[in-house]
Write a structure and sequence with these properties.
About 50% of the residues lie in helices and about 15% in strands. With about 350 residues, the protein is α+β, with helices and mostly antiparallel strands. It folds into three domains: about 5-80, Arc Repressor Mutant, subunit A; about 85-125 and about 230-335, 2-Layer Sandwich (Beta-Lactamase), CATH 3.30.450.40; about 135-225, Enolase-like, domain 1, CATH 3.30.390.10. The strands form three sheets. It has a five-stranded antiparallel sheet, with helices on both faces. Strands 4-5-6 form a three-stranded antiparallel sheet. It is elongated.
């Protein structure tokens, strides 16, 4: 695709700022990229890009930096579409093993994504309003140790191993679990904790003075109560911070990661294609989120996303996420013989 002179200059400004975090002027562009234009011509194009909202000045005497509009135009029209060889190699190694669960494969893929982009990635499962509990199981491991297992209709499994108090045997615990299953099986995940709390007096009749078992069940299910959000490589956000100012921005991104309601609002806007939300994050506008649905046969879609400062390497991040999601979907279709 042949770019106009103005598009070429905008592309270079965005990529220079992503690389250095420094405003850029006409002389820098001319010398660094050996542009066949005079400094005056480049300066005129920078002025035009600023007037149309694609660039902005941090200070009156400084060079230009991309605006949210400039980033958006770059993402939609100017970025390159190359995927690092290392990403392909690591993902190929992961997907060569067909013995892992869906959750394990997606988790490992997100870990690769996070480390290859130096940003935080996360995966979101179905809404807690959509997913339902199938049952709770207790598996005795020894006379004094057992594992509580929770299974949902989306195939998600959560478990926790615990030590049974003195005087309580596995048979008593299984009797209580049957009582609970009879009353909450089929309940939406978002309502399970409330229903289990309502059952506490009844359970106490079976396990008088042994409420630790019931508390273990409640604590384990707390992971199910909220929408399932798994986060990878938070610390890698700092690896690209060349200055204290950038570290502050990274801190704001980490704060956003704790605001799950905002993340869910963004992810609800996600379609099947990769989408880029530039300058999202409530009052903290210096945050961008790149998201994509992951289609898994026989399950409701999940969402994989990358989040970081607005000055992220969009070309690298978008191309990497697109590749990861495409390879995951081909892997899951192959396993399902579709």
């Amino acid at each position: 695709m042949k770019l106009s002179r103005r598009e070429q200059i905008l592309k270079l400004v965005v990529e220079y700022f992503i690389e250095t975090a420094e405003p850029v002027g006409s002389n820098t562009l001319m010398n660094k990229y050996n542009l066949p234009y005079s400094s005056a011509t480049i300066r005129a194009e920078l002025n035009a890009l600023e007037k149309t909202g694609y660039l902005e000045k941090v200070h009156a005497s400084s060079g230009r930096v991309p605006s949210s509009l400039g980033y958006r135009y770059y993402v939609d029209n100017l970025r390159d579409y190359t995927v690092d060889k290392e990403v392909k190699q690591q993902l190929n190694m992961l997907l060569s093993d067909s013995t892992q669960s869906v959750e394990e494969v997606i988790n490992d893929a997100c870990d690769i994504l996070a480390h290859m982009t130096n940003l935080a990635s996360f995966v979101l499962g179905p809404s807690a309003e959509e997913e339902r509990l199938i049952n709770i199981q207790i598996v005795p491991l020894s006379p004094t140790v057992a594992t509580a297992i929770f299974i949902t209709d989306q195939g998600y499994v959560e478990n926790k191993t615990f030590i049974m108090p003195n005087g309580v045997n596995a048979h008593e615990v299984q009797r209580v679990v049957k009582l609970i299953n009879d009353r909450i099986a089929g309940t939406p995940i978002s309502q399970v904790l409330e229903k289990m709390e309502a059952l506490r007096p009844l359970v106490s009749d079976y396990l008088y003075e042994h409420t630790v078992i019931f508390q273990v069940l409640l604590d384990t299910f707390a992971k199910f109560a909220a929408d399932r959000l798994s986060l990878y490589a938070r610390d890698s956000l700092y690896s690209g911070s060349e200055s204290y100012k950038d570290a502050e921005k990274v801190g704001r991104v980490l704060n956003l990661l704790d605001d799950q309601s905002l993340l869910h609002h963004l992810l609800n806007e996600t379609g099947e294609e990769v989408r880029v939300f530039i300058g999202k994050g409530g009052d903290e506008v210096d945050t961008s989120v790149v998201t994509s649905k992951v289609m898994i046969p026989g399950r409701k879609p999940g969402t994989i996303a990358v989040i970081g400062p607005t000055r992220m390497d969009y070309a690298h991040v978008v191309a990497t996420l697109e590749y990861v999601v495409d390879e995951l979907e081909k892997y899951f279709r192959r396993l399902a013989n579709i």
